[in-house]
C-alpha cells in the first residue's frame, strides 16, 4: 500500500482534523516523503511493514528498523508545538528515521479520544465496563479524550488495583488515592496524564477516576471530592490505542509489529 | 505582629514581585483581611501563631485551626490563574478560613527559586552538595526555580536513592530512571514537577536530575541524554521551603507550627 | 427549594451561558456552596428566602442578612474579570456572606439583555413603548443588551425627563443632552452605562437614547448626530431586572425581599 | 513658527513618547501636513495662530476656524484606537479641518500626567494644595496620570464642593459621595474619568478623591473604603492642561485663543 | 444615484463582509460622507460619475478629479491595518479627496476572490481557460482569492509568456521560472502577489502558476515542485477587476471612466 | 574545527541572539548534530570544509555535497516560523542533508544587519559610499537591517543602474522607479525585500533607496515621496554577506567554497 494511501485512511478513521486546534502534537505523518510525481521522482513510497509503539524515540526507531518496518506509528511523536531546529535529540531521531527509510505517523489526542479504537475505550474494555453505559468523557474544548461507564459487578478498591496491575506497568505498582466509596461501579477514564479531569469526574458522580500518571494537586482534590483515583501508569494505560491500530492496519493486508517498551511512568 | 507587617516582611525576603509574571499562583496574602483604618474597623489583625504546610487544603486548614494558628503559610495555595467564582471546593476552603479567622499566605515559585530558603536549596543541603559549587538552575523566563551543585564524595545510584528515601515520601519509594553514569557528583535539582528541565540539566553536564514527580516523556529524554533522573516525590522534595520559613518567622518572635501531610505523590 | 435547583432555573431562564464570552462579570452563582453529596456532607442547602438588589456590597449584604435571606441576587456582583486574591474589600464582603450563610447569585449582561425580564425591557414598559414595535438593541458581539421601540404618543423632551425623574434616582435629576427633535417617538434604551451605543442609535434613526450614566465623549457625538440623550442614572435605570426576578422567584413559592439602595449615580 | 517645529517642541515638553503604549488616543499631530521638501511642495506650513480646546469636535473646529487659527490643540482628539475609515462623523470633522487649513494636535494622557502643565497639576493649584506635598498619583502601567497633595488648611466637605462649583461646569453642580472624614486635608486627583483609582487613593490614605465623571461602582467602593469622592465634571476638571499649553505657546511668540465649550459632563 | 445606495450595492455584489477578518485593507467606503439626515444636512450625496483605478494614489486622485468623477473605486486603497494619524502621505491624499469632493471606495480581496468579476476570473477569461473547468483557488482562511482551470489547447511556455506580455505591463516583460512541463494545460491564478500559493498549486497538480510579482523564495520552491511560474506584473494582472466593476456600474446608468496608470511592478 | 566551536564563533560574531524576537527565520545551526558526550557517542563532529550559498535548497545542498563540504552556511534557510512536520519539500531537503552528513547553519537578519560583514554593508562598499558617512538604516523593532551613506562623487540615475547591473543578477536588468533627483549622493540600502523602508528613507532625506525585489505599493509611495528606488534583485543584492562569512571562516583555517546559484529574482 502506498504511504499516502495508508496515512490518508488513518487520518480519516481517526478524525485527525478535529483535534488540530487543541493538540500540541502534530498529528498525521510527522516525518516522511510525500507525493512527488511532478518532480520526476517516484510518487509516495510503498509500505510493506508497519511497526506500532507508544513512544517515538531512539529505542523504538531502532526496534522498528530491526523489525524491518518502513513506517512507525506512535501515540507520542517527536514534534510538540513545532520544531525550531532539527538539532540535538531531534536531529538524532530524525536522522535515524531518514537513514533507515522509516516514516513516522503520530496520533496523539485523536487516539485518546476515539470511542472505539482509542486508549480509554480499550481500557474500558479491559475493565469490563458495560458497553451500553459508555459515553465520552474528558472535555478539552470541542473534543473529548476519555470515556466513562459502569461495571455490572462492582469492584472493590483492591480488586481494581489488582486488575490494573496486570497492565504493562514496567514493574511499578499502580498507586491509589483511596478517598471514594468502597464499591466501585461508575468509572471515568482518561489515559496518560488525566488528573486534570478529576473535577469533571466528581461532577459526573463517578466512584473512581482511572488514569496514568499523577500530579501533586490531585491528592487534596480527590480527598475533598470523595473520589478514588487510580494511577496505573502513563505507558501502561496507553498501549490500547496503538494495538487497535495494528489490528486495523493488519486487516488492510499489511504486515504489522507491535513494539513494547514500557517506561514505568 | 500585625498581619500586614508579617506578610510584608515575607514578600520582601522572598522577592515575591519578581515572580509575578511567570507564576500561575497568586503569591503573597491570598485570603485575609487588609489594613482598613479608614473604615473605623481595626487595622490589620495581629498574628500570634503561624502554621506552615506544603499544601493549602481542607486537611491543613483544619490542622492549622486545631493548632490555634491565625495564619497559614503554604507553598501551594488555593488560587491558580485567578478565581472566577468562590463556589464548590473553593467555597469550602475559603469559608473554612473565614470561619476560623485564619489568613492564608502563599509562596509558590518564589519559594522554589530562593537560593537560601527555597526548596531546591534545602534539598541541596540535605544531599550535602558543596556550598561553593552551588548555582541557580531551572530557568523560567527571567527567574530560576532550582539549584545545582556537586557532591565532594560521589554517590552511587542506589546510595542516592536511599538518601532520598529518607524524605517524607508518604511511604512511596523514590523511582529512578537509571541512564547516567554510575558515580554521581554533579546534581541539578528542581523540586516538585521538574522534569521539563532535563534538557537544561543535560546541557549543564550534570550526572543526575533530582525532582519530585515524573512525566512520561522524561523516560526517553533521559535515556537519550544519558542523565539519571530521581523522582523522589512532589511533596517529599518540597517540605524544605516552608520549614525554612517557619524558622525565619520563629526568629521574629512568633509562635510557629509545621504541619505534615504527605501525599505520596 | 435547593440552592442548586434555584440557580439552575435562573441560569436557564436568563440564558446565562450565551453571555459568558462578552461579560467581565461572572454570572450565575458567584459565592456559595455546591452539591457535595460525595463527601458525606449534605448536598446543596435549601433556600427559603431570597433578597434582590442592584449591587452586591457591604450595605446590601447586611440588609439581606437582616431580612433573613439565605440567597442574595444582584445585577452587579463582586467578581469582575476574576479574583486574584480574596483580600481587602473582597475579603470583607466574601467573609460577610460566609458568616451569614448567605449565597450570592449574579446576573449582569444576561439581565440587561433579556427581552422580557431585563432592565431595558422593564424601562421600555415604564416608558410605555408599544409592545409590537420593540426589538433588541445594543449589540455586543453576538448578543444584545438593550431594547428599542416607539411610543404611540410622542413625548416632549421635558415630558420624558419628567417621566424619568420618577425613577429611584437617589434625588439626582436626570440630565439631558438636548440635540435631537422636539417630539420623541423612537427611543433606544441601554440601561446603566450605555452611551457607547449612541452610534448604533443614530444609525437606527431613533429620536432619543435613554441610558443611565454619561461619559464626556457622548456630548459631541450626540450633538453631531442630532440625537437627544437622557442620562437617568445607572442605578435608577437598573432596578427593573432584579424586580422582575423577584416576581419570578416569588412565583416559585419562595419568600422574596427587594432591597433598595439608590446610589444617585 | 513652522508646524513641525511647534509640534516637535510640544512632544518634547509633554514627553509624548512615554505614553504611547498605554493611551488609546493617538498623541501628537493627528491631522495635518508633514514636511514634504522632497516633492517640490513647500515644507511644513507656518503656524500663526493656535486655538486650544478640551475636545476636538465640530463645534470647536468651527470656533477655531472663526478665530482664524491654523492649528487646534486639544486634550480629546478624533482618533481613538486608530481609524478604519474616514467616513461618517470622522469624515465630517476631518474634512472640516482640511477645508479650513486647520491642523489638529492632541495630547491626552501626556497632558493628564504632566506634573506641571497637566490637568491634575492645574486642579491641585486651584485647590491650593501645598507645593511641597505634591506627588504623582494615578498609576497606569509605567506612567501616572494624576497628582496628590495636602491642603495646609483643611477643607470641609461643603467648602470643597463649593470651590469645585467654581469650575466651568456647564451649570451642573458637583456631586459628592460623602463617605470620608469631615475635614479634608489629603486629596488625590485624577481628572476626567478617574474613579478607577479609588483603590489607590484608599491605599494612599487620602481623605478625598477629586475627579470628573462617576461610574456606578464607585459608590459602594467609596462607602466601604471610607473615602469621599467629588465628581466635579469631566470637562470642568480638564480645562487646566490646555490653558497651560496656551500660556506655553504664547510664550513662544505665537498668537493663541482658548475656546470654551463646557459639556456639563 | 445616492453614494450610500451605490456603495451598498457594490458591498452586496462583492460580498465585502466575508473578507473582513482576513484582509488588512478596509473594504467598502474608505473616505467619504455618510447619511446624515438627522443633523439637518443633506443625506448621502449623489454620484454622477465614477472613476476606476487599480491604485488609490495622488496620480489617480488627480486623474479622477480631472475626469469629473465624484467617486473613485480602486483595488488598492489608502488604509491598510487602520490609520493612527491623518498626516504625511495620508494627509496629502485624504485632503485631495476632500477638496475635490471625491469619495473613495475600495475592494481588495473581495475583488481578487470574486469568481465572476474578480481579477483572477478576468485573467482566466483572457487566457481562455475553459469555463467548465474553473474552480476557486488560493485559500486564505475561509475564503479564496484566485481561480484555476484548464486550457483546451495546451500553451507552450513561450506562447503563454507572449500572451501575458499583451497585458498592461508598463513596458516590463513577464518573467518566467521555467521548471514545469513544456505543455501547459492546467493553470492556477492568483493575481498581484501570489507566489505564496505555489504549494497549493503543486498539490493541485497544475502545470503553471500565473501571478503578478515575485519573491525570492519561489525560485527554489518552484524548481523543487516542478511547476512553472509566470510573473506577469502586479498591476498588469489586476486591471480586470476594476474594469468589470466599471461595466457593472455603467449598467446601473452611471457614467464611468477607467483610469490607467501602469506601474511596471 | 569542531562544528559546535565553529557555529559558536559565528553566533558570537554575528550577534545572533539579538535578532531572535524579530526574525521568522531560525538563525544559527538549523539542521545538524549537537554535543552528545554524555551518551557515549562522539561529541560534535569536525568540520573540514564549509560551503556558502544565498539559499538553502536542493540545488545548493547537492552542490555543497559535490564540493565535499560538511557544513553549508546560507542566508535563507529551511525553517521559517518553525516546522510542524518534516514532510514534502522539508523532508527532501532535510534527508539530503542527513544522508550527506552535511549540517546547515543559517544567518538571515543578523547577516542583513551586521555593519561590517552584512549584505547592506557589502553593497555599500560595492557602491563606494564613503566610510565615514555610513550609519545603520532600516529599523525593525530594536535592530536595523540595512545601512545608509553618501557617495563623494554623485551618481547619475543611469550610472547607478549600470553599476548595479554588474551584480550577479541572473541576466535580469535592474528596474528603476525614477522619481527622485537626477544626482544621487545619499543612498539608503536594505538588501533583499526592502521597499517597506521607503518611508524611513524619505524621512532620512536620501536621494535613492537601493533594494532587491519590489512590491506594487512602492511605486506610488516613491512617486509621492520623490525618492528613486533601484530594484537590483533579491539574490543579486544578498551575495555579499555569505562571501564575507566565507572570508571569515577561511581565516580560521577551514577550507571554504562559495556556491553561486542566481535566481533572477
Automatic annotation (TrEMBL), chains A, B, C, D, E, F:
<comment type="similarity">
    <text>Belongs to the GTP cyclohydrolase I type 2/NIF3 family.</text>
</comment>
<feature type="region of interest" description="Disordered">
    <location>
        <begin position="21"/>
        <end position="43"/>
    </location>
</feature>
<feature type="binding site">
    <location>
        <position position="76"/>
    </location>
    <ligand>
        <name>a divalent metal cation</name>
    </ligand>
</feature>
<feature type="binding site">
    <location>
        <position position="234"/>
    </location>
    <ligand>
        <name>a divalent metal cation</name>
    </ligand>
</feature>
<dbReference type="GO" id="GO:0046872">
    <property type="term" value="F:metal ion binding"/>
</dbReference>
<protein>
    <submittedName>
        <fullName>Nif3-like dinuclear metal center hexameric protein</fullName>
    </submittedName>
</protein>
<feature type="binding site">
    <location>
        <position position="112"/>
    </location>
    <ligand>
        <name>a divalent metal cation</name>
    </ligand>
</feature>
<dbReference type="InterPro" id="IPR002678">
    <property type="entry name" value="DUF34/NIF3"/>
</dbReference>
<dbReference type="InterPro" id="IPR036069">
    <property type="entry name" value="DUF34/NIF3_sf"/>
</dbReference>
<dbReference type="Pfam" id="PF01784">
    <property type="entry name" value="DUF34_NIF3"/>
</dbReference>
<feature type="binding site">
    <location>
        <position position="75"/>
    </location>
    <ligand>
        <name>a divalent metal cation</name>
    </ligand>
</feature>
<feature type="binding site">
    <location>
        <position position="238"/>
    </location>
    <ligand>
        <name>a divalent metal cation</name>
    </ligand>
</feature>
<keyword id="KW-0479">Metal-binding</keyword>
Amino acid at each position: 500500500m502506498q504511504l499516502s494511501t495508508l496515512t490518508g485512511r488513518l487520518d480519516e478513521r481517526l478524525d485527525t482534523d478535529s483535534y488540530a486546534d487543541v493538540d500540541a502534537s502534530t498529528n498525521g505523518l510527522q516525518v516522511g516523503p510525500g507525493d512527488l510525481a511532478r518532480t520526476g521522482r517516484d510518487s509516495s513510497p510503498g509500505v510493506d511493514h508497519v511497526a506500532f509503539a507508544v513512544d517515538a524515540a531512539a529505542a523504538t526507531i531502532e526496534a522498528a528498523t530491526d523489525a524491518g518496518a518502513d513506517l512507525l506509528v506512535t501515540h507520542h511523536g517527536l514534534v510538540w508545538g513545532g520544531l525550531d531546529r532539527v538539532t540535538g535529540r531531534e536531529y538524532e531521531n530524525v536522522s535515524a528515521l531518514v537513514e533507515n527509510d522509516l516514516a513516522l505517523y503520530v496520533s496523539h489526542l485523536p487516539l485518546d479520544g476515539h470511542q472505539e479504537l482509542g486508549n480509554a475505550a480499550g481500557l474500558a474494555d479491559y475493565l469490563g465496563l458495560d458497553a451500553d453505559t459508555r459515553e465520552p468523557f474528558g472535555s478539552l474544548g470541542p473534543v473529548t479524550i476519555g470515556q466513562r461507564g459502569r461495571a455490572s459487578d462492582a469492584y472493590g478498591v483492591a480488586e481494581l488495583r489488582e486488575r490494573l496491575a496486570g497492565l504493562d506497568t514496567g514493574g511499578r505498582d499502580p498507586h491509589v488515592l483511596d478517598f471514594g466509596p468502597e464499591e466501585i461501579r461508575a468509572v471515568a477514564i482518561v489515559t496518560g496524564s488525566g488528573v486534570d479531569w478529576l473535577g469533571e469526574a466528581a461532577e459526573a458522580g463517578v466512584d473512581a477516576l482511572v488514569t496514568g500518571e499523577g500530579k501533586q494537586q490531585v491528592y487534596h482534590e480527590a480527598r475533598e471530592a470523595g473520589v478514588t483515583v487510580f494511577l496505573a501508569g502513563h505507558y501502561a494505560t496507553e498501549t490500547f490505542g496503538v494495538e487497535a491500530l495494528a489490528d486495523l492496519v493488519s486487516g488492510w493486508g499489511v504486515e504489522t509489529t507491535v513494539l513494547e517498551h514500557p517506561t514505568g511512568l
